[in-house]
Amino acid sequence: MVHILGIVGSPRRKGNTDVLVSHVLAGAEGRGATTETLFLNDLTIRECDGCHACWQGKRCPKADDMAGLYARIEAADGIVFGTPVYWYGPTGILKLLIDRFVYFNCPENRPQIAGTRVAIAVPYEDTDAETVRPLLEFFKKSFAYLEMNCIGQIVVPGVTIRGEVAQKPDCLQAAFELG
Q1: pLDDT, tens digit, for every residue of 114-160?
Q2: Contact 152, 177 (CB under 8 A)
Q3: What's the rounded Cα separation, in Å, for the pair 57 and 109?
Q4: What's the predicted TM-score (pTM) here?
Q5: If DSSP codes are grouped into helix, strand and coil, which group holds residue 57?
Q6: Cβ of 30: how many Cβ atoms within 10 Å?
Q7: Of 103, 92, 73, nearest to 6 (Cα)?
Q8: Phi, psi (5° rounding) for residue 15?
Q9: DSSP 3-state helix, strand, coil percentages of the chain (rounded to 5)?
């Protein structure tokens, strides 16, 4: 059975990012997938300091929740990354998670995620497409470098209030179809 991991990088539960990721996962469930949601704000993920212990087959010296996430990421057939736009990029906690993907950059670990299908869910307050462009490029370049397969994205501009995206049925439908 296909397993899809939803990663919510927003600190707001029931916020726009959570709603979009939930709809992508509901679409995947509708096609028979099992799903799981991670709320990064509930976890402690520290910064990567570039020691490359993981490249030497050693355990990461960071004593945080990332150690338990690697196996969950590896087990996923697909991953939905959700984040609002914060200063033209992802939230800090999502950036910390991606920085720790250096583990998968190691030639021995790359096969664990190479080919994994990924999707992006991004709500943002502004209505200018240039605001979200750097974030989308960040994701696409990171995924391409890790040989992950970006299958699509749902981007919703002009949402600020918690859960406001739920008032946009066309966006919810697009998120569901992405799943």
Answers
A1: 999 999 999 999 999 999 999 999 999 999 999 999 999 999 999 99
A2: no
A3: 9
A4: 0.95
A5: coil
A6: 11
A7: 73
A8: -85, -175
A9: 45, 20, 35
- In whole angstroms, give the CA distance from residue 118 to residue 168: 23
Coil/strand/helix, residue 4: strand
Task: Supply the DSSP string of 62-80, one letter for each residue.
Answer: --STHHHHHHHHHH-SEEE
Nearest Cα to 73, choosing from 143, 135, 174, 126?
143
DSSP, collapsed to helix, strand or coil, labels residue 172 as helix
pLDDT digits (tens, 9 = 90+) for 29-70: 999 999 999 999 999 999 999 998 888 877 888 989 998 999
Residue type for 54, please? C
Number of residues assigned to the chain: 179
Give me the amino acid identity at 105.
N
Tokens read off for 83: 């984040």
Sign of the Cα torsion 145, 22, 133, 102 reads: negative
Q: How confident is the model at residue 14 (pLDDT cuts 50, 70, 90)?
A: very high
Residue type, 102: V
Closest CA to 23 of 9, 12, 11, 37: 37
